[in-house]
Design a protein that fits this description.
Layout (H helix, E strand, L loop, with lengths): L9 H9 L3 H12 L3 H18 L16 H27 L1
Helix pairs in contact: 1-2, 2-3
């Protein structure tokens, strides 16, 4: 890990992590330290894990460790809309053809 520095905006990085904005935290860390993307990502992920252990109540309910919260729900809604539209179109076609 990188040595702590006065130039690193720790409060900003913690707030990004607490609100589920890991990419913003990585960006802030990279800009302050000049480290490459891979090292910054690894550092922020380790920091997030430690913060989750120390301050589990500070993280927003939707901010999950794995990210991607809600993707399955959106896919299900899109599928249901597609099925509904298909059924309506087949119903209209059936009425006009028969």
């Amino acid at each position: 890990m990188t040595e702590p520095s006065d130039q690193i905006p720790w409060d900003e990085i913690r707030e990004h992590l607490f609100s589920g904005h890991r990419i913003a935290a990585i960006k802030a860390y990279r800009e302050a330290t000049g480290t490459d993307l891979k090292a910054s990502k690894e550092f922020i992920e380790e920091l997030e894990a430690r913060l989750r252990e120390e301050f589990p109540d500070h993280f927003k309910a939707g901010a999950r460790a794995g990210g991607k919260a809600g993707c399955a729900g959106m896919m299900l809604i899109a599928l249901m809309i597609g099925v509904f539209v298909t059924l309506v179109l087949f119903g209209v076609a059936y009425v006009f053809l028969f």
